[in-house]
Amino acid sequence: MSKHQLTTQSGFTLIELMIVIAVIGILASIAVVSYQTQVRQTQLITIYQEVNQFRLPYQILINEGAGVSGFSPSGLNIPAQTKYCQFSVTKPAASGITIDAITCTIQNLAYAQGQTLSLDRTADSAWQCRASTGIAKAYLPKDCQ
Predict the structure, then answer these.
(1) Cα 73 from Cα 84, distance rounded (Å)
(2) Confidence (pLDDT) at 69
(3) Which of 3, 24, 4, 21 is nearest to 12 (CA)?
(4) Where are the alpha helices (DSSP H) in 74-141?
């Protein structure tokens, strides 16, 4: 070997390593935001499913002509509180339209604490989901948007 022959080195330069770390950081931040959104959507879907459990017992009480006392979580034979909800039930209005017939006041979720997810009963006995304005639409189930 001659003295003038160059030796080759292998490895990465500092700039290449910094670029790779920056790209990983960007991808990680995107993944964290996406994960948080997915978790919040799942939590609100769970709340919506819990509220929907009241629909059938509520309709049965209407069909049986229940009095004022029957329209409560205990009257519907469903717990008044779950991990994420404090429930309230409103007696059906004479007009058939009942706003906030079944309401979940959200608890134990910092991003939606004190907000509500409600089912309104329409004059034709259909149900409509309604969320308070403090809950981002991106997190709501499709039926509540």
Answers:
(1) 15
(2) 59
(3) 21
(4) none
Chain centroid, CA 126 distance in Å: 22
> Which residue, chain included where needed, has tokens 């004190």?
114
Structure tokens given for 51: 């509220």
Please compute the mean of the pLDDT values over residues 132-140 and round it to a whole number.
Answer: 93
**For 11-24, how does the pLDDT look when each residue is reduced to its tens digit (9 = 90+)?**
889 999 999 999 99
- The stretches of the chain forming alpha helices (DSSP H) are 14-52, 55-64
Domains annotated for the chain, with CATH where assigned, are 15-144 (3.30.700.10)
Confirm if 90 and 72 have CB atoms less than 8 A apart.
no
Q: Model's pTM, two decimal places?
A: 0.79
Residues in the chain: 145
